[in-house]
Amino acid sequence: MDEEKVITCKSLSKKFGDFYAVNEITFDVNKGEIFGFLGANGAGKTTAMRMLCGLSFPSSGEATVAGFDVYKQQEFIKKNIGYMSQKFSLYENLSILENIEFFGGVYGLDRKEIKERSGLLIQTLGLEKEAKKMVGELPLGWKQKLAFSVAIFHRPKIVFLDEPTGGVDPVTRRQFWDMIYEAAATGITIFVTTHYMDEAEYCNRISIMVDGKVEALDSPSNLKSKFSVHSMDDVFYQLARGASRSAD
């Protein structure tokens, strides 16, 4: 993991009327890091991610992604990141190969690059015989692997994964995390949200949001030590309970 900062946030906020969906969050993410972004539904994770992906303007604060400013250089940000959600964003009425080629074009690769990388990707995934099969016919686990592969097809500096393992079995989730580790080893930074606390253990560092604020930020082992607990579930529970008491 490199010490180069590929994401920086300083007092970043998003306000809707009088409501702060994201309230002055501050953190950095290193190159090649697997950074977990955790929080309950409504904690502000998606709003924060949308700002970092260049899809929403912040209300205040500062942030850069891949060296580009989230206010002034959103289009440059989009060209240097990949994105995958739980819904995968694949076209089910197109074949595996057609999906790969389509997204290669969207990401701005030329025909030669697309052809070379498509062949290599299909070979790596072991899908040579299924390349012309419709994506809609694939099992959920294979759709997940293909969606991740497409998200990093253009070799972005950062890939944002929004609840990428929802709905798949534990074995498939573990295999998917193997792919994440392989991508991180090539220098791609992984920014991932998940509601599976066991997956938080796979991250280099974790940020936990509660009510729009970053309430904890450290490695899983350090957080468990700090809260004197044995699991990330317990860390999350203590933070949520503390926030609830403060609200009362």
TrEMBL record:
> Which superkingdom heads the taxonomic lineage of this protein's source?
Bacteria
What InterPro entries would the database entry show? Answer: AAA+_ATPase, ABC_transporter-like_ATP-bd, P-loop_NTPase
- Give the source species: Arcticibacter svalbardensis MN12-7
Q: Which residues form the ABC transporter domain?
A: 7-236
List, alphabetically, the PANTHER family matched.
ABC TRANSPORTER G FAMILY MEMBER 20 ISOFORM X1, ATP-BINDING CASSETTE, SUB-FAMILY H, MEMBER 1
Determine if Plastid is one of this entry's keywords: no
**Does the keyword section mention ATP-binding?**
yes
The record's PROSITE patterns line, in alphabetical order, gives: ABC_TRANSPORTER_2 (PS50893)
Protein name stated in the entry = Putative ABC transporter ATP-binding protein
